[in-house]
Structures are given as structure tokens and as C-alpha cells.
Amino acid sequence: MTDRQKQLRQIASKVQENIPAVAAGKYRCRYHLMPPVGWMNDPNGLCRFDGLYHVFFQYAPESAEGAGMRSWGHYAGPDLLHWTFYGVAIYPDTEWDADGAYSGSALVDGDGLRIYYTGNVKRKDKEYDYISDGRESNTILIRSENGFSLGEKQVLLRTADYPKEFTRHIRDPKVEKTSQGYRMVLGGRLKGDSGAVLLYESQDGIQFSLQKIVTAPEKFGYMWECPDLFNMNGTEFLCVSPQGVAHEKYKFQNVYSSGYFAGTADAEHYREWDCGFDFYAPQTFWDGERRILYGWAGMPDVPYDNAPTVAEGWLHTLTMPRELAEKDGKLYQMPAAELKRLRGGELSMQDECAAYELELEDVLSGTKVLLSDALEISFEKEECILRFLTDAGRGRTERRAKVRTETASIFMDVSVCEIYVNGGECVFTTRLYPERYDVKIEGGCTAKRYEMNGYTVRMDIQK
Ligand code: FRU
């Protein structure tokens, strides 16, 4: 082991001594995956392998604000409800990933696992803008026989290998197996500042050749992060998280967007995954039976904050795992069926309970739901509006979606809330920091409220 490799491991094990203290935080969630300490962003390397689900994630254990090493953290468990934290899986500890083991994916292949990710390197010998120069993005492969002990890092593509049309912003490999071999998408920023995806193919999953560059005919943001590509019911869905798309009343309300192109990569065929304040950089995977999506329930560069959890020594969560279903070219998202097993006893609306599910049916236009006296959800004829009435939103204001609501499933989990309208036709995710946990409903709907039990999460580090 090099000195740097030893040093990073020591830092991680030292800061992870704070896991019990962080676990006592008032705003810790019960059925959302969070960083054990420090910062979490994108879900990475999602897969089901050898009877276990693996959820890796962008992890900065040293700081709740994301400073320090950017590594891959690792959770695994048998059923999406019982998890064990396995510590840092990938350290940024080589010359190819020195400034971050950035996002990527995992692929079950034969009897092993392949992990593809971006090694981010920032040269420091002089001043760079890190857009057109000074940054290197290495596409790296790591193999694993068991999903836990990882092999050597093998660099597959370096900066000089990418097409000259691109700036230095290229990253986040998502690799899938096809009948012909392997297919990889990478997200990027073209010179001239348009977002684009690089589509590669390979026979062996090691030597990749560029097939095409996919971009919208009219510029759709300056950078596309975290691409994903899959086929469902005959439609190809190209998923991206575009940066720099102009805000509209019902769309692109956040600083960055996240959604998918159904069939054709243009603005007309693009739909956002989530209309709330906190959703970005999702990833999907096929678990053998269904396609599941996890998103990052967070967003970079926001004008609002999450100071209450930063004070507790941690920041951000993932969304619940969402099962995807295709209907008329639209993707519907609902929490994975097994999360129903978390449902506990029925509650009244007045009961103080911080982890619950609220089921609304036959929602009439004009119905308003008030969560914790802080977050108002108004179901109007043609739109659904989320509005914070107090500072429990930490600067979050209002979000709108064009949808005629008939039903809604609202999942509150202490400091994160996910709202699924019409069986997942439209979803909102937001963080919130209330002082109390009750519900008030005005107007017409049938409502039932149930307690939600938490995941079982073991935090004792296994290696
Ligand atoms: C998206 C992202 C990715 C990158 C990672 C770094 O949130 O910016 O493009 O790989 O985060 O943490």
C-alpha cells in the first residue's frame, strides 16, 4: 500500500468513529439510506448480485458539506429493507482518481461484478478553469468476485481517448450488457457548451469504441451528468441530469434538472423524474425482475440549505427505491413493493409521528394537505403545488407540476418527504425540518395515515 492509500484509510476510519454520535441526530431518517457520517450524493453501482442488493454512493466521510475525499461508500443487504454499511469501497487513492472516485455503475457479468467509474483528476501545476483544461476524467474498471473485495483499478479510457468535440467534462459511465456485448454511456459537455452523451460499444467490456455522440438538436443545457440508457416495452429511455436548462413555470424549476428522453433526444420528448426541490443524479438497475431507480434526494448549488443535518454531522439521503413502469411512453415511479412491509398501525391525523405514509384517494380539486404546519400541498384542477409556509423548508419556496390528481401517496420520513401522485405519474421529493409531525386536511378526499417502521441498518463496519 502507498502512503496515500494508508492515509485515506486512516482518515476514513477515524471519522467513522463518529457514526454512533451522528446516528443520534434528531433529523436522521428511518427508511431512507443516509451517509453514516459526512456527505452523500449520487447513488452508484446499483445492482443485485449473488442474492444481495448493493447500493454504493458518492461519499465524503470527512465533511457534511462534501469537502475532503470523494469516495464510494457501500451498503448491501438481501431485500431493500435490511442493510449493512460496509465502509468505503473505492478510495481516490491513485494517480488516475486522486481528486475523486466519481460516479459510475456496476454490472453483474458471469460470476463476477464489474464496476465502472470516473477517476477525477485536477492538475494543480497552474491555474485552470477545469472546464477546457486542467481536468482529467479516467474511465476505470474494477472487478470483484464477491461484490466486497475489489480488484485492481484498470484505466480503460483517458482524456486523450475522448472525442475532440468535448471539453474536459466527461464522466459517470453507465454500462449495460446487450445481446452484442456491452454498451456504455458517459455524460459530457461539448465545446460550445451543450450537454451530450457519448455512446460506446464493446465486445469484452474493456476495449470501448465510440458509436455516437447524442445531443439535442437545439441546445438543452450545457452539461449532461449521470446518463443511463435502457429499453422498456420497446422504447429506449435515455436518462440525463442536464445543467443549465432555463426555468419554466411547471418545468426545470430547480437549479439543475433530471429526467429522461423517451425515444428521441429533444426537449419535446424530455420528462422530469421529480418536481420537488431535492432530486438529482438518479441511477436505475435491473434486479432480475424489475427496473429500480434510486435518486439522490439532494441537489447541488441550491439557494436553500440543510443546516439542521449539517449541524448533526451528516447531509443528504437517497430516495426510496422506486419501481419503474412504462405507460404510453411515460415512466411511472412507485416505491418498491417490499416497502409496504414497513407499514405499521393506523394513525389519526393529529398523532405525533415522524415516519408515516399518508394515502389519499378520490382527491377533489381544492383539497389542501398540511404536513407539520409547514408544507402545504394543494391539489388544484390541473396542477399540484407544494408550498412551504414556514422556515422548516430552509429557504425552499414553491414547486408546481401540471397534473390532475386523483390519488396521492405521501411518505414522510423525519426530514425527507416523497409524494407520489396518481400511482407515480408525478413525484415530488423534498427535505424539510419541522418541529412537529401531524397532518391537517381541508377539502374532499379519503385519507388514511399509517406509521412506517424503519429499515434495519447495521453500521458496524465489516472490513
Ligand atoms: C452528480 C456529479 C457527477 C459526479 C459526482 C461527483 O451529482 O456531479 O457528475 O460524478 O457528482 O461527486
Shape: globular
Mean pLDDT: 97
Classify the oligomer. Answer: single chain
Q: Can you count the beta strands?
A: 34
Low-confidence stretches: none
Distinct bound molecules: beta-D-fructofuranose
How far apart lie the N and C ends? 16 Å
Strand order of the largest sheet: 19-1-2-3-4-34
Range of strand content: over 45%
Q: Return Rg in Å.
A: 21 Å
Helix tally? 3
Q: Level of helix content?
A: under 10%
Largest sheet: 6 strands, mixed
User: Which structural class matches the secondary elements?
Assistant: mainly beta
Short description:
The protein has 463 residues and is mostly beta strands.
What does this structure look like?
The protein is 5% helix and 50% strand. It has 463 residues and is mainly β. It is globular and about 60 Å long. The model has no long low-confidence stretch (mean pLDDT 97). Residues 41-42, 58, 70, 100, 102-103, 118, 171-172, 225-226, 280-281, 300 line the site of beta-D-fructofuranose. Residues 41-42, 58, 70, 100, 102-103, 118, 171-172, 225-226, 280-281, 300 line the site of beta-D-fructofuranose (FRU).
Sum up the structure in keywords.
globular; 463 residues; 3 helices; binds beta-D-fructofuranose; 6-stranded mixed β-sheet
Fold blueprint:
Elements lengths: L2 H13 L3 H5 L14 E12 L2 E9 L10 E7 L4 E9 L10 E9 L2 E11 L12 E10 L5 E8 L8 E12 L4 E9 L4 E8 L6 E6 L8 E10 L2 E9 L15 E4 L7 E3 L7 E7 L4 E7 L9 H6 L1 E2 L1 E2 L3 E6 L2 E6 L7 E5 L7 E7 L5 E5 L3 E5 L3 E6 L9 E5 L5 E6 L2 E6 L4 E6 L7 E4 L3 E7 L3 E3 L5
Parallel strand pairs: 1-19, 4-34
Antiparallel strand pairs: 1-2, 2-3, 3-4, 5-6, 6-7, 7-8, 9-10, 10-11, 11-12, 13-14, 14-15, 15-16, 17-18, 18-20, 18-21, 21-22, 23-33, 24-29, 24-33, 25-26, 25-32, 26-27, 27-28, 29-30, 30-31
